[in-house]
Design a protein that fits this description.
The chain contains ten helices and five strands; from the N terminus they run E-H-E-H-E-H-E-H-E-H-H-H-H-H-H. Strands 2-1-3-4-5 form a five-stranded parallel beta sheet, with helices on both faces. Helix 1 links the parallel strand 1 and strand 2. It is elongated and about 70 Å long. The N and C termini lie far apart (about 50 Å).
Length: about 220
C-alpha cells in the first residue's frame, strides 16, 4: 500500500488534493492532517508515510520545521513541499530541511501526482519558476566544509587512517598508547556517525575532512 500524507490546514484544498492523489495507483492511500503536530503524533503512534506533502504556513509548527522533525523520526520518508510561497529564503530552508521537491498550489492535480511519482522514483521535481532560482541560490553559495567537532588528536588519527596505517603504526607515529588510540578512534566513529574504519575513511575523503591520500 502506497501511503501518502497531506499536511495542510486549508480543509478544502487538503481534501481535493487527497481525492486527486488517491487515484495515483490502485493501492494508494491518501491521509489528511491539519498540522505537523497531528502528523508527528501519528508517527509516534507507529504510523508512517511513503511520501508526505507539506504546506509551509501552518498553525503551530511551520512546515519547514515539520519536515526536519518528521525526517528525524522517519529518514526514509520522502518530503514534497506544496505551498503558495516562492520567496528564496523559504525555498532554501525547505530544501535544506530535507524536501525532495517543491510544488506550488497553483499546479494542477495532474502535475502534483506526477511530482509524487517522481520523488518516489528518486527524482527531485521542482516547479519551473522555482528551479532557476534554486540553481542561482546554490551557485552563489561557497561550499562549506562539514564540521563534525573533531579535535586535533582525532583529526590526526583520522588522517593517518586515510593513509592506510594500521593500529600499531598510528600509535607509533602519533606517540599514543593503544588504549588511548582505541578511545580516540571510538570518539571519531561517534562524531562521524559511522560504525567502523572503512566508513570513517570513506566519509572523510568524500567530505574532504582530510586531504585525500596520494595515489
Amino acid at each position: 500500500m502506497l501511503e501518502i500524507w497531506i499536511i495542510e490546514d486549508n480543509v478544502q484544498f487538503r481534501r481535493a488534493t487527497a481525492r486527486g492523489l488517491s487515484v495515483l495507483a490502485d493501492d494508494a492511500s491518501a491521509r489528511e492532517f491539519g498540522s505537523c503536530e497531528e502528523a508527528i503524533a501519528a508517527i509516534e503512534d507507529g504510523q508512517s508515510p511513503d511520501v508526505f506533502l507539506m504546506d509551509i504556513d501552518l498553525p503551530g509548527m511551520d512546515g519547514i520545521e515539520g519536515i526536519s522533525e518528521i525526517k528525524q523520526r522517519l529518514p526514509d520518508a520522502t518530503a514534497l513541499i506544496l505551498t503558495v510561497f516562492e520567496d528564496d529564503e523559504k525555498i532554501f530552508r525547505a530544501l535544506k530541511a530535507g524536501a525532495s521537491g517543491y510544488c506550488l498550489k497553483t499546479d494542477t492535480i495532474a502535475k502534483i501526482r506526477e511530482a509524487v511519482e517522481q520523488v518516489l522514483q528518486g527524482a527531485a521535481p521542482i516547479h519551473p519558476r522555482i528551479a532557476g532560482r534554486v540553481l542561482k541560490m546554490f551557485a552563489q553559495l561557497s561550499p562549506e566544509q562539514p564540521d563534525y567537532g573533531l579535535n586535533e588528536r582525532e583529526q590526526s588519527v583520522l588522517e593517518a587512517m586515510t593513509r592506510g596505517l594500521v593500529r600499531k603504526q598510528i600509535a607509533a607515529e602519533l606517540d599514543l598508547n593503544l588504549h588511548t588510540l582505541d578511545y580516540v578512534t571510538r570518539c571519531i566513529y561517534r562524531k562521524l556517525h559511522v560504525n567502523g574504519a572503512t566508513a570513517a575513511v570513506a566519509l572523510a575523503i568524500r567530505e574532504r575532512l582530510v586531504e585525500p591520500p596520494e595515489a
